[in-house]
Protein: Ribose 5-phosphate isomerase B
Amino acid sequence: MNPAETPIALGADHAGVALKDSLRAALEAAGHPVRDFGTHGDGSVDYPDFAHQVARAVADGQAIFGVLVCGSGIGMSIAANRHPEIRAVVVHNTTEARLTRAHNNANIACFGARTVGAEVVLDSLSAFLSTPYEGGRHERRVSKINPGQEA
Structure:
């Protein structure tokens, strides 16, 4: 797939669905294709179900990046990071968003709907998506994240 045509995968639990829907609208308005894995309502659901779907889409190359939202972002990041190809991070601000892309080659941004305001999340997501991975000295470190799989 052409990276410009590769969607951004979205997922959320019931605590994050409203913020996810806002992010989807903003991404689509900016011209990003989106694949929304849900949830689509405020009924109680289990966050790992959505984290795993988004992580698989990113790991398989069906999405260029993932965005996950739950109450704190923490549960989603824990579940997504169970996939060896994934580097999911909880993001609280634009500085973290830029650094985690530039230095850690993060491929899933996780946000807490109960911990970070919507404007900060929108700005942080923009920084995450627009910051390239620097590679170089960081590549050696990133390759050591999954023991036994170092380059």
DSSP finds six helices and five strands in the chain. Residues 84 and 146 are 7 Å apart (CA to CA). The longest helix spans residues 17-29. The chain has a mean pLDDT of 94.
